[in-house]
Design goal:
alpha+beta; Ribosomal Protein L9, domain 1; Ribosomal Protein L9, domain 2; 2 domains; about 35% helix
Amino acid sequence: MKVLLTETVDNLGSAGEVKKVADGYARNFLIPKGLAVPVTAGTLKQAELRRQAEARRQQGAKVEAESLAKTLSQVTLTFQVKAGEKDKLYGSITNADIAEAFERETGQTIDKRKVELEEPIRELGSYYVPIKLLPDIAPRITVIVERED
């Protein structure tokens, strides 16, 4: 039986693909759970319209992300924090702190989950932190951590 996947299914395919599967698998699992629909001319046409709408949405998101990437790459965030001996911070600077400081600095909001900080910053210095806007767009901002006077 041929089915049109409505959601990504592990080991089978991603949403919008037409796949040939066993009748029982389609009738007893995929279709009842809403993961797929049987292939008809109408469902194929709906899938094509969804694909076109998704492509337009992704194009708009890409243009917006490129615009934000230009802003991000020019931003330098400076944190003044208390530090002990050997330049170790009392506490740390996390991705949430970076997102919050970016919003204060520029007025634009970025999701803290997009800040690709491998581990919190715990020492004074200068760091380059990537912001993953889209899978292929990840500008780096400069984060400077200075000792508070």
